[in-house]
Amino acid sequence: MIFYNERDMIGGLNMNSGILFERDILYPTDNSGDPGSIHIQVFGPDRNVKIPVVIEAKSNHSPLNFIDSIVRIMQSDIFDRIFIDVRKNVDIYLRTTAENKAEYDSHNFVKISYSEDGIKTEGAEL
Fold this sequence. Notes:
Structural class: mainly beta
Strand order of the largest sheet: 1-2-3-4-5-6-7
Strand content: 35-45%
Number of helices: 2
């Protein structure tokens, strides 16, 4: 288990390790001729020993509307290689846009969590 000092953590993200991995990913949308595009940043484990992932849209599509497809792609392309279950061991933060920021109480991020009841979203700050 890895322990970090509180001063090394910002909003739960381990800033000493920085970004461990980043990548641009295409994902399917309702229009096969117009895929969505996102930028993913994977950080070192946070104080809850989960891996924070920050997602930012690079296209006009809302990643939140296609989160199931995005998670499947992240799982197969990134996390299967290191035997990590995204739904159990990753905290996903999606950067809000001008269009959905008010819906999440003006937070800069939407935290996406999985439970037995499905997907839960809430406003968050890092």
